[in-house]
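Bump. Still looking for EamA domain-containing protein structure tokens.
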Amino acid sequence: MPQSTSRTGRTAAPEPTPLPTIAAGAARGWRDYALLFALACCWSSTYPLAKLALDTIPPITFISARSLIAAAFLFAILSMRGVRIPTDAKAWKLFATQQLINSTFPFLVITWSQQYVPASNTVVLASTTPIFAFLITSLITRHEPATLLKLAGAILGLAGTVAIVGLDTLRGFGSEIVAEIAILLATISFACATIFGLRLSDYDPMVVAAGSLLFGGLLLLPPSLIIDQPWTLHPTPQAIAATIVMGIVSSAVGLMLFYMCLSRLGTLTTNAQGYLRIPIGVGLSVLLLGESVPSNLALGLLLVMAGVAAMTVPAERLKLR
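Sorry for the wait, here they are.
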């Protein structure tokens, strides 16, 4: 955006780039929803893979390693495609900001909080992201229609999540209030990231994912070397494999799909994949880790699907013809 010059001869500061507006009646096809489902599958693998890796790899080193592996994977593909990474400061400032609020800060906070908060409670608290995204969109940014149907969908999805992890988990809330508030702050950060990510819609999704992951991996590399001293670790082959798979599938492919969904479906609909991840993640945990099937899985899945449907069905399809 060109800068204007005032009468005093001083250059006025450039105006902030407005968020792209998502139209209420934007046409969506089955490919868009297939991308949303694919994103949910990629990010669902986070739960079982992280559990396999974190037993022998500390959190900071784990997050840094998977980010750098993902960045290397994407840079190799970009090189084969002949796509150049932008070198201007504006682009890298956007990449850095997005990575901080979408990955580095929330993942470190949640990792710390999980030392005090049970996994089931963490799942419930982290599933409030669509609700926070709705509130921020409807009250502050207003960059896309935030209908009551979408709010109802967010609440239904949260109810389904609670049903899947078990109603007994609600009794444990409040015992570790500081850690629980920290998780909520992380989910608010996730919600802000889905909105801020719209500013990156002019860039190739693979470029955004590669740049963001490279920044995040390099940011955590020094503390990893100082605190964890990776050369002294003895990770199991299973943990190394989990880190590599998570870097390529969850981080590289998942983040690329995330930016594609943002540009095609908007903030609120993209957030619906957060609820799809719960039953998919449970299924992967049963298959990969041998965990038991939750007794309320059927009820929770029904509520989750109803919530996702309410958040993703375009408004024009609900109108009577």
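The chain has 13 helices and no strands.

Edit: fixed formatting.
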